[in-house]
């Protein structure tokens, strides 16, 4: 990877940001149009330094197996599995593509980026138990969630995750589901592996190069202004297509591009911290990722979870996140990011959210005022015998929640999840938002290719389906294909014995 620009200063494609989204798009384009020249500009000293980094990303491999916010209950108690089914199917696309990369020798050993880890959902109380039963029934009626287990027996739950039951009140009602097919994914490692494989194919990855401006030229190309983060030197390149996959930095750049599609969009930054332990004794008693329910007013990205992680060959446990706040849109961003993102076309959306999301504001203030002992008490809801000295605090990634204008009311609404913005002529696209993000990167980039390259997609389809067999097919209703894909990806990714 280089800080110098490639000799050919007018690439076909510019990818802004060196994260999992850009790496995925570079890999997909390498399959369907290997002759296209691609330049990647990353503002930091290395790729995958922000949201894709292992310590800035939960690494859950979001398949909706354990995340309760993907399965809301209605007033009658019935659980709607629609979003969970969609996310699970999207994650299957990712698994297939990663399997393809492994088979083609483009990522090295899958153990470098993916590990089997059971996914567990956990609630307490009679009301929580009723919800969990309904959720289990709703999900297991679909083949995508075959093999999921339910228990409200404390002894069984203690077998699943001993750490969470040790010292717990024996009279407390607990209920849980477990999916042993869950995974822990190191998206930072996966990003680096993909870029390492792409560079010999002519994908030029430039670090310490911050894109500061995007301007549409008369000939239809985009003039991309790049500033060297070390020397301060500015240069420009011209590209036929630009993807802004810069995490929280995507919104300001899309605003500078002045495409009509970004009008009305704003962003609200939320940072996070985790408690972490590397104690072998504690880690050995918790071999799973366990998700609970979010507090009232908390954003979905703040759902409490106790995760087994494997990073750089070392196992640890993370608990959190504890929400924080900063006006920066990236960990390496500027304190002016938020104020500079407020424009006349999104001011109404921003003010509307400020009025309607009072519960979120109250939640964030409460989180910011939390003492270390208060954070420990929250952890003890999961680990009753947790002790302060076993856990240290780490700062996680910065996320920017999407604010958009509701087309019906015209008011601003806070949008949780990810939002793909594409220009009408297909020459520019960008991704806003957070979870499930990285886990569904393949689905997001396939959608981008369909929207931005409709003239090519039919010709590309055979190659894409060779790499991703369920692409363009209804996996949730094709049991034979689902079985074949599960068997093949588990074998290739070494997720079975």
TrEMBL record:
Q: What is this protein called?
A: Probable malate:quinone oxidoreductase
Xref: PANTHER family? L-2-HYDROXYGLUTARATE DEHYDROGENASE, MITOCHONDRIAL
Looking at the keywords, is Chaperone present?
no
Which InterPro entries has this protein been placed in?
FAD/NAD-bd_sf, MQO
One of its Pfam families is Mqo
Q: Which reaction does it catalyse?
A: (S)-malate + a quinone = a quinol + oxaloacetate
Species the sequence originates in: Trujillonella endophytica
- Family matches, as SUPFAM superfamilies: FAD/NAD(P)-binding domain (SSF51905)
């Amino acid at each position: 990877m280089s800080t110098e620009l490639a000799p050919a200063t007018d690439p076909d494609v510019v990818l802004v940001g060196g994260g999992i989204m850009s790496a995925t798009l570079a890999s997909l384009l390498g399959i369907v149009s290997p002759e296209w020249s691609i330049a990647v500009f990353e503002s930091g000293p290395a790729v995958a330094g922000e949201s894709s980094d292992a310590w800035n990303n939960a690494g859950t491999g979001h398949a909706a197996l354990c995340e309760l916010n993907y399965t809301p209950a209605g007033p009658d108690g019935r659980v709607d599995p629609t979003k969970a089914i969609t996310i699970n199917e999207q994650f299957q696309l990712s698994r297939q593509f990663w399997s393809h990369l492994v088979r083609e020798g483009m990522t090295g050993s899958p153990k470098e980026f993916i590990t089997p880890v059971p996914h567990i959902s956990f609630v307490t109380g009679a009301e929580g138990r009723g919800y969990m039963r309904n959720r289990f029934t709703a999900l297991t009626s679909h083949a995508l969630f075959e093999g999921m287990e339910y228990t409200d027996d404390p002894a069984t739950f203690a077998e699943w995750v001993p750490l969470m039951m040790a010292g717990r009140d024996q009279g407390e009602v607990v209920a849980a589901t477990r999916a042993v097919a869950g995974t822990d994914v190191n998206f930072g490692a996966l990003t680096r592996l993909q870029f390492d494989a792409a560079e010999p194919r002519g994908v030029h990855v430039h670090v310490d190069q911050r894109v500061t401006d995007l301007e549409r030229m008369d000939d239809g190309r985009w003039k991309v202004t790049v500033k060297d983060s070390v020397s301060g030197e500015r240069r420009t390149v011209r590209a036929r297509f630009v993807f802004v996959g810069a995490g929280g930095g995507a919104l300001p750049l899309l605003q500078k591009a002045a495409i009509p599609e970004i009008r009305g969009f704003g962003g609200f930054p939320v940072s996070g911290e985790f408690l972490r332990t590397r104690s072998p004794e504690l880690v050995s008693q918790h071999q799973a990722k366990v998700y609970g329910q979010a507090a009232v007013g908390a954003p979905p990205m703040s759902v409490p979870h106790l995760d087994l992680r494997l990073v750089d060959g070392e196992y640890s446990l993370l608990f959190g996140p504890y929400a924080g706040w900063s006006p920066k849109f990236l960990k390496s961003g500027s304190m002016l990011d938020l104020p500079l993102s407020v424009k006349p076309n999104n001011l109404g959306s921003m003010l509307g959210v400020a009025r309607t999301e009072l519960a979120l504001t109250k939640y964030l203030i409460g989180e910011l005022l939390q003492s270390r002992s208060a954070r420990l008490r929250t952890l003890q809801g999961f680990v009753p015998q947790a002790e302060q000295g076993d856990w240290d605090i780490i700062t996680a990634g910065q996320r920017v929640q999407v604010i958009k204008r509701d087309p019906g009311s015209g008011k601003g609404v806070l949008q949780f999840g990810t939002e793909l913005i594409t220009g009408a002529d297909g020459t520019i696209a960008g991704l806003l938002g957070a979870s499930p993000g990285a886990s569904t990167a393949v689905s997001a980039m396939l959608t981008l290719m369909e929207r931005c390259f409709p003239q090519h997609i039919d010709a590309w389809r055979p190659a894409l389906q060779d790499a991703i067999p369920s692409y363009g097919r209804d996996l949730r209703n094709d049991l034979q294909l689902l079985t074949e894909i599960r068997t093949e990806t588990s074998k290739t990714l070494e997720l079975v014995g």
